[in-house]
Specification:
Length: 119
Amino acid sequence: MPAFAVAGDREFLHAAIAARPSGHLTYLAAPQGTRNHKRPGNMIRESARVAKVERSAHGLRKSRAIQLAEGGATELQIGSWTGPTTLREIVRYTRQRNRRAAVAGTEQDQNSENTADQL
């Protein structure tokens, strides 16, 4: 997993791969026979609601994109990780991260200040 991945991602990925039956393809089956481009998002939203997570598929993807940006991922890495999101949208997440870093300072800046204080 890349350095910007959220803790636990690797284990979750391996558990998901191990849980699926062997084979080459994975299909999402729509319970009511509806097959359109909105159905996977609706299924995710419904499952999230059952799990007491009040987010849409877009909201979940946005949350992950922000986590990745805060972890140091580039715009292209975030796009690869989160799927078909526009670059404009991804830039908004990294811009937010860059503003926070400008105010708080980078981890490297904070570490060098701590080291200087200890001397």
